[in-house]
Amino acid sequence: MEFQDKVLTCIDCGTSFIFTAGEQLFFRDKHFTNEPKRCKACKSKRASAFSTPSSASNGPRFHRVETRATCSQCGKETTVPFRPTQGRPVLCRECFVQRRTVASA
Fold first, then answer.
1. What Å distances lie between residue 77 and 27, 66, 87, 94, CA to CA?
2. 44-102 tens-digit pLDDT
3. In contact, 49 and 31? CB cutoff 8 Å
4. DSSP assignment letter at 6
5. Dist CA 22 CA 38 (whole Å)
6. Terminus-to-terminus CA distance in the chain, angstroms?
């Protein structure tokens, strides 16, 4: 199957961008069924918006879950950026870093 460059229009800024034959081949190999909707600039702007903290004036953003828990190692009250599952240890930041440095040594 021969691919040819296509000119697409970004849904965010309205500028034209090229969907190259190489990118089309990549999309086919990954079994992606939709063509890209955003130019590279808008795609990177959107990706960085999801990684920054939320702000009411900037509209809806990604919200990180913070759950209160007790550290399994030292017993200190802490918050963790996930919902703990039963049977798995929860570590505070200090114990987590300590365990990681010991494991890498």
1. 46, 13, 18, 12
2. 988 887 775 555 555 555 566 788 889 999 999 998 888 888 888 899 889 989 988 88
3. no
4. E
5. 17
6. 51
Closest CA to 59 of 76, 69, 46: 46
- pLDDT for the residue numbered 57: 53
14-50: pLDDT as tens digits: 999 999 999 999 999 999 999 999 999 999 988 887 7
Task: Please state, in angstroms and rounded to a whole number, the distance separating the CA atoms of residues 80 and 65.
Answer: 8
**Residue 19 carries which side chain, given as an amino acid letter?**
F
Residues in CB range of 90: below 8 A, 6 or more apart: 69, 70, 71, 72, 78, 80, 84
- Cα–Cα distance between 50 and 12 in angstroms, integer? 16
Beta carbons of 95 and 74 less than 8 angstroms apart: yes
How many Å apart are CA 20 and CA 41, to the nearest integer?
16
